[in-house]
Design a protein that fits this description.
mainly alpha, globular, 177 residues, single chain, AhpD-like
Length: 177
């Protein structure tokens, strides 16, 4: 399955999602590694098999093995961190903010790709998972690396579109069952 096949799987009532997917695949504001890594990290974050398969097929010849591993690592580590830090942020008990997380996060320090790329992928996944604390942290780090607001917005547009497509496909699958 490719992005074209994924668009075919999206029902006509969600035509805007198909159009957004097409335009984002052609987007040039991000270099290819940032763009396709964002697609891959976002697909793994939403976790819908059809979305993951389509994006994996699309990026097969577009990303190095190191970038593929790092994008998947961003989805994995943010899946954990987004829950933990969202809890810390939302809890009314202030003592959690002073306690060490005691969770391994070594990949953040050494992702195997450019740090800004990994941060961008982590931000996209954090947007999908709804962790405001992580969004703020990764956005600030991206700004320190010189990533523009337009580039950050593009990554979040990719994440939001894949998230919406995943929701539509899940709903359609539930109706078919």
């Amino acid at each position: 399955m490719s992005l074209e096949a994924l668009k075919t799987a999206v029902p006509e009532y969600a035509k805007d999602l198909k159009l957004n997917l097409s335009s984002l695949a052609r987007e040039t504001i991000l270099d290819d590694q940032k763009k396709w890594g964002t697609f891959l990290a976002s697909a793994h974050a939403v976790g819908v098999p059809a979305v993951v398969r389509a994006v994996e097929a699309e990026i097969a010849d577009k990303l190095s093995p190191e970038a593929i591993s790092a994008a998947k690592s961003a989805a994995a580590i943010m899946g954990m961190n987004n829950v933990y830090y969202r809890f810390v942020h939302l809890s009314s008990a202030k003592d959690y903010k002073t306690l060490p997380a005691k969770l391994r996060m070594n990949v953040i320090a050494n992702p195997g790709v450019d740090k800004a790329d990994f941060e961008l992928w982590s931000l996209a996944v954090s947007a999908i998972n709804g962790c405001g604390a992580c969004i703020d942290s990764h956005e600030a780090e991206l700004r320190r690396h010189g990533v523009s607001a337009e580039q950050i917005q593009t990554a979040v547009r990719i994440a939001s579109t894949l998230n919406a497509i995943a929701a539509v496909l899940n709903a359609e699958s539930a109706l078919a069952a």
